[in-house]
Amino acid sequence: MRRPVALVAVTLVAVALGAQTAAPPRAVAPQAEHGPRLLIAVTDENGAPVAGAQIVASNGAALPGASRTWRGESDDAGRLTLLGAEPGSYHVSVERAGFYPFITDVTLAAGQTLEIALLHHQPVGEVVNVIDVAPSVDPQQTAKSETLLSRDIINIPYSTTRDVRNVFTYIPGVVQDQASGQVHIAGGTSYQTAYVLDGFRINQPAGGTMELRLNPEAVRTIDVESSRYSAQFGRASSGVLQLDTRTGDDSFRFAIVNFVPTLQFVKGLHINNVTPRGTFSGPLKRKRAWFYLAQDGEYDNVIIQEQPAGADQAAQWRAGSLGKVQVNLTPGNVLTGSFVYNTLDAPNAFLSRFTPKAATVNLDSTVWLLSVRDQAYLSKSTLLDVGIAVSDFRDAERPQGQAFYEIHTDSVAGNYYRTQLSHSGRAQGVANLFLPPWQWHGTHELRVGVDVDAVDSRVHAHRNPTLVFREDSTLSRRIQFTDFPHFNKDNIATGLYAQDRWSHGQRLLLEIGARLDRDQIVRDFLFSPRFAASYLIGSVEHGTKISAGAGLFYDETRLSFITLPLAGARTDFFFGPDGLTQILPPALTSFRVDPSAVRDPRFLNWSLGAERMLPAGIYGKLDFVERRGARGFTYVNTAADAGSPGGDFLLTNTRRDHYDAVQFTLRRDFSNNHAVLFSYTRSATRTNRALEFTLDNPIFGQQASGPLPWDVPDRVVTWGWLPFPLLPKTDFAYSLEWRTGFAFNLVNERQQLVGLPDRTRFPQYLTLNPALEHRFFFVGYEWAVRVGIENITGSRNPTLVNNNVDSPQFLTLGGLRHRTFNGRIRFLGKK
User: Fold this and answer.
1) 130, 659, 732, 745 - which has most CB atoms within 10 Å?
2) Contact criterion met (CB below 8 Å) for 80 and 93
3) CA separation, residue 70 to residues 31, 94, 253 (Å)
4) With 0-12 CB in 10 A as exposed, 13-18 as middle and 19+ as buried, what is 494?
5) In this predicted model, which residue has the larger pLDDT, 802 or 644?
């Protein structure tokens, strides 16, 4: 696959957020209609269609006794047709999360279309005291979904707030692991989730992980759907995480955040980090074209108390850019182009209590994404959405020298064993056609679409020997690698889908859809039927909505599974107590794939849910989700004694995963955009193949069932922000996560598995992060200053452990987190 040379994004630092007042509705020229009806078209301030807007229309004034009221939701084309609506005066209200509510009285002639422009919520400006749309029971929503709006992303105090990926953990049902920082939705591995940015998939092409980094101020919404989601989203069995970024409008806006470095008191006074970021947006041509730029930078200084002076610090640098342009070619044709660029330089990555500086890795990484998307109305109710995108991921890891890597019972030493250069890319095209609603025993909204993904992966690696020592420093094991030539692997996946949204009255909604997928590696035709339904008992304000659904889901074929046999081979030598005499024959480890013998893994995902508005304006939700996976990819040792070192590992479809969860969520929104959320999840994440055998994993032992490493049986997430009673213009914000500790394996001095996989756990995890934020005016500009304490309880929350049962330091914990003070300064511009 050809890739353009990565461009360096324009760096501009950012601007005052003002706010707009709502644009008046437009009644366009009458058109012939068959029977009385009213068409309402909902767009944003720049003319892009807004789906999912809740619309209530009453003929006559907004008074008790109005003769008729219609309720509905705008479809994916931003349209809603009110059948039986005669010409006359109407009172119309429109609400959509992330937008300011809109209310109007309008008089319409026969056949007119009411066009309404909703304004996106802005964090500051003249309309700061206007409440955003509060959560409510949505009778038109069938998917199990969770949403964070821009106000949530900005106001929740969470660790490392310069990276929006770190707020994912405060979404109910989303778990962030401590090994890689990747997220897990509905118990799935990271690659089983589709990460979507502005309509395009951004999973790392070879491993499927989420590597792209975004400025939090640039993100408008984060939506997570973990069950009952549309057939539009394929090759993702655990869920979809969608990021929607901001777009400029007719007002120039800029803002800057965290332009002052923070300090840390660890072995003296040192710089902790510098994390400036900013945004700048505005019109290129008013009412026609707009731009949006977001830039972020980061310098971090990590200090490890257990390492000696002079070798106890590791610094890293990051930078990221987002550039976006929207042009309205015609009033019904919106063209959007965007470019994202990330870079990372980490000279001593993974420095820790157990890893000295000589054994660390120099990491370099660049990621970029270029996309173009066109939304065009083919008729007033038919929308065609097409787009193309190209992404590129380059990673390099280099050790500090060429000394042999040493694994001791309490630490590692020498130089890291692997030098690796990897390069992967993705080219994708999507097309979605949203057809006009049609009537047959209710209203049907049909969408169809197609998507094509071309991915490839190129890897060049060299591995030096690794030595494993006993507690008395005698050699126990020598690991010798055989390098294979660098390799290139690609794949093309295609899919098409159809989805019918069938509403019968205002209470019952059915969604029936199906996908057909195929790729060049497995070559199966994968049929994925899906069904979801919701029924409203009572009214929206005081009723209960029941939702249910089930479907078959498949995953994207992960190239890193398929290419493992191309990465090389390994030979292990085992020595007696003298460290010289071999006590076992050399053990060869190799991997094989027979593409004709493997099939695509599949999951059955079904769920039940209930939603209700409780007393005191509290929104309550209860969900049950079950995922059952079959035919999962796993490498099986074909040797007669599968628990002994080495073996011939064959890729098979013998893995079975399951996930069960009950989740309870409460949310209360207050005036001036204050809110509080509480969620508790009880879950189990299990597999029959708990060990993952790879070339780089020195562990060996008998395969067995057990929990997956991110299994957390009990988890509580709560966050919120409220006015602080003692100080005006001051908010108290907090976030809290409590959960069961993650599971890990035990090994002996030879790195052999001891006991069953993942049966030992870290201590329970608790972090409570309170903060106070005060807004004030200085020299004619508005500022916001936040001071907070991360992990105020001082919980240890370890991320590392000595898991060697033969070590005197067995179960010693590392990566401990301490109570830290942090601050944030936001320059918000003129009011």
Assistant:
1) 659
2) no
3) 21, 12, 38
4) middle
5) 802
Report how far residue 269's alpha carbon sits from residue 39's, in angstroms, rounded to the nearest whole number: 65
Q: Region 111-123: what's the mean pLDDT?
A: 81
Task: Give the residue among 82, 70, 69 at the shortest CA–CA distance from 114.
Answer: 82
- The Cα–Cα gap between 545 and 522 comes to 41
Who contacts 622 (Cβ-Cβ below 8 Å, separation ≥6)? 609, 610, 611, 662, 663, 664, 665
pLDDT in tens, 336-357: 999 999 999 999 999 999 999 9
Q: What is the CA radius of gyration of the chain?
A: 28
- Residue 119 contacts residue 125 (beta carbons within 8 Å): no
Q: What is the mean pLDDT of residues 668-692?
A: 94
| Closest among 57, 220, 207 to 148, alpha carbons compared | 220
pLDDT value for 126: 38
Would the pLDDT of 603 be above 80?
yes
Q: What is the pLDDT of residue 57?
A: 87
Residue pair 200/155 in contact (Cβ under 8 Å)? The answer is no
Residue 531's contacts (CB-CB under 8 Å, 6 or more residues apart) are 510, 511, 512, 513, 549, 550, 551
pLDDT at 396: 97
User: How does pLDDT run across 4-35, given as a tens digit for each residue?
Assistant: 323 222 222 222 223 233 344 444 444 333 45
Whole-angstrom distance, CA of residue 321 vs CA of residue 278:
10
- Which of 762, 764, 716 is CA-nearest to residue 736? 716
Number of neighbours of residue 671 by Cβ within 10 angstroms: 10
- For 397, residues 6+ apart whose C-beta sits below 8 A from its C-beta are 349, 361, 362, 363, 416, 418, 419, 420
Q: Is 584 left (phi over 0), alpha (psi -120 to 50) or beta?
A: beta
CA distance 710 to 715: 12
Distance, CA of 250 to CA of 286 (rounded, Å): 6
Contact 290, 249 (CB under 8 A): yes
Q: Whole-angstrom Cα distance, residue 767 to residue 810?
A: 25
Encoded amino acid at 578, one letter: D
Beta bridge partners of 601: none
What is the SS3 assignment for 165-194? Answer: HHHHHHCCCEEECCCCCCEEECCCCHHHEE
Q: How far apart are CA 747 and CA 699, in angstroms?
A: 8
Dist. CA 821–CA 273, nearest whole Å? 12
Please provide residue 376's backbone torsions phi and psi, each rounded to the nearest 5 degrees: -135, 135
Tell me the pLDDT band of 163, cut-offs 50, 70 and 90: confident
Report DSSP letters for 487-517, one per residue. EEEEEEEEEEEEEEEEEETTTEEEEEEEEEE
Q: What are the tokens at 221?
A: 């919404």
CB-facing half-sphere around the CA of 206: CA atoms within 13 A: 19
Rounded Cα distance between 491 and 400, Å, is 35
Q: Which DSSP category does 64 fall into? A: T
**Residues 746-792 pLDDT 10s:** 999 989 999 999 999 999 999 999 999 999 988 888 889 999 888 99
Q: What is the pLDDT of residue 35?
A: 56
Output the six-digit token pair for 540. 């929206």
Query: What is the three-class DSSP state of 430?
Result: strand
The two beta strands, 800-801 and 813-814, are antiparallel
In eight-state DSSP terms, residue 305 is T
- The reported pLDDT for the residue numbered 85 is 80
CB 376 within 8 A of CB 342: no
Task: List the one residue out of 386, 508, 504 whose CA is nearest residue 450.
Answer: 386
**Torsion, Cα of 697, 701, 707, 708 (10° steps):** 20
Q: Residue 148 corresponds to which tokens in the numbers above?
A: 């964070």
| CA distances from residue 537 to 144, 411, 505 in whole angstroms, order as listed | 18, 60, 13
Q: Are 550 and 609 in contact (CB under 8 A)?
A: no
Tokens of 95: 């609400």
